[in-house]
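Continuing the batch. This is chain 6 of the set; chains 1 through 5 are on the previous pages. Same settings as before, nothing changed between runs. Recording input and output for traceability.
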Amino acid sequence: MNRAGATTRCADEAETIKAGRQLASRLAPGDLVALEGALGAGKTVLVRGLGEGLGLAAEEISSPSFVLAIDHPEASPPLLHVDLYRLPEGASLEPLGIDEALAGGYIVAVEWGERLPEFWQRAAWRVVIRLEPDDVRSVTIIPPHSEAG
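Output for chain 6:
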């Protein structure tokens, strides 16, 4: 993917949450956010900030790793938080309700977004989180193709 993105360095969890809140201010109903990063990089932490930006308390956001998807209809716009880490390769994503959520005006945040089908990756906001030395996180936010021009 050859889209331009902006990178922020986050020294701690609070700054990662702030980056998520800032991303929330750029999103519209029906937007898809694909989060990428190693285990423990801070994907769920960033989604906590995204949730805060949509009117949720950070504590309301937990990793959907074992349940695969958590619906937050009380957010504004509503948020569907999905985690593809435990989904077997080649498994259908249909039961997760991503299509329906996007069509219904939800913001959909997908951890392990690199596992999404290519057509969704092209349409998504891409968030790449890398852990650097001293536990600093590098958060790169890349807008979808349509916004990147």
